[in-house]
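Here comes my example:
=====
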Amino acid sequence: MKRMLCRNRVVDFKLWWEVFSSHAEAHRAAGLDLEHVWRASGDFNNVFFIFRVRDLDKAQAFIDAPEAADAAAASNVLEGEYHFLDPVPSY
């Protein structure tokens, strides 16, 4: 199953988390199931998170929607990136 790996550098993790977590239902409706969130050691405002992607088209539309940019602005995201990932067999 595809994953979407994301990174956001934010001004304040607590504010980011409040906005981010308030979109949980919208994430699920877009075919995204949150698996985990991490904060970089020594830089707690550098946030990494990964979603399981159930529907790539819905997920891409969600990311491209103007509301996604609005949410990023509301949560004070300074920079962000995302990558859709395909599984590779492990050893």
